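[job 4471] stage=fold_predict status=RUNNING
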Amino acid sequence: MIEDKGIDCEWVSQQGVRGIYSTEKLAHARKALEIMQSTAPDLAAYMRLVTDKSELAKYRLATADGAMVTSVAARMWPYKLVSKILECLLTSSDLTGTFNLQTLTPATSITREQASGQWQVSTSRGTIVTKAIALATNAYTSHLLPGWADLIVPCRGQMSALYPLPSLSGEHRLPTSYGFEGDGLDDYLIQRPNERGGHLMFGGGRTQNHSMGVTDDSVVDGATAAYLRRQLVDVFALPEGKEKEMVEMQASHQWTGIMGFSRDDLPWVGPVPEHQGVFLAAGFTGHGMPNTWHSGKAVAEMISRSLQGQSSEEGVARAQQVTGLPKAYQVSLERIKKAMSIDDYEVREWEEMERTRRVQHEAQ
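[job 4471] inference complete, writing C-alpha cells
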C-alpha cells in the first residue's frame, strides 16, 4: 500500500533486535520461541535467540544477556502514514458522501433507545442516531463504557527525538530497530534516515514515574525525559560516555501520548456483551500499529453481518475467517471474568517500579 500510493512515511525494511537484560526474561524469551516453533513454525523461522557475546557485540548489545533477532521488521513514521490514508479517503471520488471525518468532536456518551433499539451518540456538536457503533477508543473506552474502567486502563507513554552522538551518526548509524527488555526496562528505538537528520526516536522509561491511569498528555515528566536522554549512552556503551561522566543526548523534541493497556495484555475486538449493536476494537497495550488494521477490518465485517440480520456468533466467525482474528482477542463474558482475576495494572506498575529501584540500587 505504501509503495502503491507513494506514501512518504520513512518506511525501511530491516531487522528488529530486542535486547534482553535479565536472566528471567531470557528464559521467558527462550520458552516463547520454543512455543512458537511448535505452534507457528512459519513465523518462528524469522526469529532466533542470540546469547553469544561476540554476536551480541555486533548488534551493539555487548552488555545484554541475550537478544531476540527478527529478520523481517521495519521502521516508519506512523502519523505520516495514517494522515495520508485519511487524505486519500477524504479526496476519493469513489467514497463521495460515504466517508465523513469530524475532528475536534468528542463523543460524550452513548445511550440506547429502548423502543427502536438504536443508539444515540451524544457529541459536542449534536447527536447521531445509529444501529451500530464501532468504538476505536483505546485508552478512553471507559468514558463511554464505564464498566470497562478496570479492563482497559490509560497509560501515559513518553517519547524523545534525540540528536545522535558521533558514534551513532552517519556511517555509524544503527543497522536495526531495537527494543530493550529487563527488570523495569521496556524501551524502544528506531533511527530516522541520515538524510532526514538521523534522529534517534527513543521511547519508554515508564518505571521512572507513575504512568498508569494517567490521561494528561500535556505534561512531559522530567525524570523520564532525563532517563531517555541518558539511557542510550549506557545501553550501547558509547565511547562518549567513557570520556565524560553523565553524558546525555540533546533532544530536539520530547512529548507524551496516552496508550490503552488491556488488563490481560491482549486487544479486545468484537461485540460488547449486553450492549447489542456496540462493537469494540481497543486495548492495544502499546502495540497498535501491528494490530489495529485487521482488528478494525474484523469489526467492520462483524457490523456488516449484523446489519444483514446475522447473529453476533455468525459475524465473529466470519471475521475470524476473513482476517484471522485470534480467538484470544475476541470479547466475551468469560474472558472478562478471567481478566478481572488478574492483578490490576496499577499494582503491577508499582511492583515493576520497585524492581527497577532494586536493580538500580544493586548496580550502584
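[job 4471] summary: The mean pLDDT is 93.
[job 4471] exit 0
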